[in-house]
Amino acid sequence: MKEIVVISGKGGTGKTSITASLAWLGGEETVVADCDVDAADMHLLLQPDFARTDDFFGGQVALIDQETCTACGACADVCRFDAIPFSEGRYTVDPISCEGCGYCPRVCPVEAITMPDRLSGQWFISRIRTGATMVHARLGIGAENSGKLVAKVKNEAKRLAGEQGKQFILVDGSPGVGCPVVSSLSGADFVVLVTEPTVSGLHDLKRVHELVAKFRIRCGCIINKADLNREVAEEIRAFLAARDIVPLAELPYDETFTRAMVAGRTITEESDSIAASILRECWETIKRTA
């Protein structure tokens, strides 16, 4: 099987909309993985059934046993995150501020503090409206360890693809260059970079390509809304040529994208759209190149 990861250097380039459109074209031959767990929204277009739901525990959070606690304040004194406020005669832990470092239970003289695993979110296995399987997740508000949740989603997608004998795993990665992106890239066969012809788009394309190059993964690029700034688009083309990045497609600005999303559909379902036609050719190129 081949693992294709779609990422972007910045948010707002159309990465998820394009990934969902490719998932529609991939149909039942793909397993889809939504690894943008910090802002998961591909389900809005692919309509998963949430057939299986599991909790994800990542990291730890301090918990004070109020019956044992003597309110000495030693824990609050050493907490560099100000996560243990004193209120109404007792110390409590603010789970949003707590970093789970484990320092406070070490200094508690009466051993009133424990470090249980933190419920950080949920992950799901669903059937989507293309007939394919989708693995996706939702990180809790203020929760951390999104990189570990990404790894969980990817590993489940690989397992299911192997069991089902699928040819492709299509991954929607996180934007940027942080830990979730690194986790998304692990094990990838081919990376699709989605960018836009803006100054920030070009800057962040260069930055994310530098990350992909460190993994030595082959990659191609889709320029979305390529006709909005022809000067910057030309700079992007020059960068792709200089770095031997496969120019996969240039999508024009197309309001059909917006109308399709409002209707809960992908652009590739709109047969009269120029962008849809380009993406169909792009998907075939990706399959040959990956």
Describe this structure in words.
With 290 residues, the chain is of the alpha/beta class. The protein has 2 domains: 2-57 and 120-289, Rossmann fold (3-Layer(aba) Sandwich), CATH 3.40.50; 62-115, Alpha-Beta Plaits, CATH 3.30.70. The protein is built from 10 helices and 13 strands. The protein has helices at residues 15-26, 43-46, 74-78, 103-107, 146-164, 179-185, 199-215, 230-242, 256-262, 274-289, and strands at residues 2-8, 30-34, 52-60, 63-64, 86-87, 90-91, 113-114, 117-127, 133-139, 168-175, 190-195, 218-223, 246-250. Helix 1 packs across helix 10 (274-289) and helix 5 (146-164) packs parallel to helix 6 (179-185). The chain is elongated.
Task: Summarize the helices and strands and which ones pair or pack.
Elements lengths: L1 E7 L6 H12 L3 E5 L8 H4 L5 E9 L2 E2 L9 H5 L7 E2 L2 E2 L11 H5 L5 E2 L2 E11 L5 E7 L6 H19 L3 E8 L3 H7 L4 E6 L3 H17 L2 E6 L6 H13 L3 E5 L5 H7 L11 H16 L1
Parallel strand pairs: 1-10, 1-11, 2-9, 2-10, 11-12, 12-13
Antiparallel strand pairs: 3-8, 4-7, 5-6, 8-9
